[in-house]
């Protein structure tokens, strides 16, 4: 039986769950206090190899040179064509808008230093366009200086973006988009997109009325997001969605609900970014109803720490997935496959450093996943040679779980509150797997989706690195008319790093997008 999506769990059961979160500090005389007591014989590791034959990059070598934009193929070029540069300074906003409305291909728009005030989006619908400012300035700077350009949309019409672009060979550099009413920078159905040294920001923190996305390339191919910053977005600071081939590197995402999101995307290279002080730092996921089956995601040399900001996403306006994320989630992987993490740093994320979830946790009907070839399972997740600094997993959802708005956090919080009181559990393990895939559950497979957790640096004294949370069984106990938290705890299984079956060495064929 497929699990009930937590967002649809009965209200009465969710409210009853709240009562489980306040547990007395007590001991269980029958408990032997061994973290792995009752752990089943793991057997021989099983390499699921879920998508090796279908999503391993067949047809284009797997990468198209994804790690080097110089190697990207282009379906438009300005070479040999007439090119023009138009220069504008603050106070010439209307002239700029008039020029944008009449743009011809292969035009560069040079923006002077200072602050531009706009009452509507800058809408670009031409190929070969470059927009250049004088610099992106620093976090919190609402006005441009001698070496920075700020595009201020504070007085723009409701529900409009800042920059709104559709085009081939689009470049934007060295500017800030401030207080956009909707998305700071929306680039859709475009190819060869270069976003460099851009800052998107909203003036106030933690407002669900802030724009949803800071930097938002979507439904595009060959996208570079580099040396950018994003602050205070009510959904995601930096979001690459429904895209094929992307590099997201050397960016900073802070004070957003989600720092960086990679959604329904194939061949992503996510490196050297900093995601801190968000609700969740880095997200890799597919959503139902989308024909792009995300795969081949390389995540390396990122810092994902201290992501404990309360979730301020609007339940109505935001994607339901993001609005349900518990505060304190370093990274979550949902309905994703062939994802490799190495040389990253996690720590001080109150709920968990990494959560691996099935798409069935948010949408239990497999038919809804048909457009993406039933892409709800997560599979082939390789977590190796990273550093976990500690301080994570001890205060699920910052200690204030909301069973209706963030039910997963409430379930995890209830189980681990019991674990702390009765089993001396130090908190959620560094990696949490929901235990759902494959569905219906096949108990004969010891590691059915091929999660590999090896060679990571863990805090001294770490008992276990990974937990099979078995969300379906746990939810059955906690969401029943008579919740049983002790039985829910017994459904979970903990594993030390290096223990079978999670001591596998990746997936085959290996990623080629390093």
Structure write-up:
With 514 residues, the protein is mainly β. Helices cover 10% and strands 30% of the residues. It is built from 6 helices and 32 strands. It has a 20-stranded parallel β-sheet that branches. Strands 4-7-9-11-14-17-20-23-26-29-31-32 form a 12-stranded mixed β-sheet. Helix 2 links the parallel strand 1 and strand 2. About 9% of the residues have low confidence. This is Right handed beta helix domain-containing protein. Keywords: Signal. It comes from Pseudomyxococcus hansupus.
Topology:
Layout: H1 11-18, E1 84-88, H2 93-101, E2 107-111, E3 114-117, E4 122-124, E5 130-132, E6 149-152, E7 163-165, E8 168-178, E9 185-188, E10 191-201, E11 213-218, E12 221-226, E13 229-231, E14 236-241, E15 244-249, E16 252-254, E17 258-263, E18 266-271, E19 274-276, E20 280-285, E21 295-300, E22 303-305, H3 320-323, E23 329-334, E24 337-342, E25 345-347, E26 352-357, E27 379-384, E28 387-388, H4 407-423, E29 431-433, E30 451-454, E31 466-468, H5 471-478, H6 485-491, E32 493-495
Parallel strand pairs: 1-2, 2-5, 3-6, 4-7, 5-8, 6-8, 7-9, 8-10, 9-11, 10-12, 10-13, 11-14, 12-15, 13-16, 14-17, 15-18, 16-19, 17-20, 18-21, 19-22, 20-23, 21-24, 22-25, 23-26, 24-27, 25-28, 26-29, 27-30, 29-31
Antiparallel strand pairs: 31-32
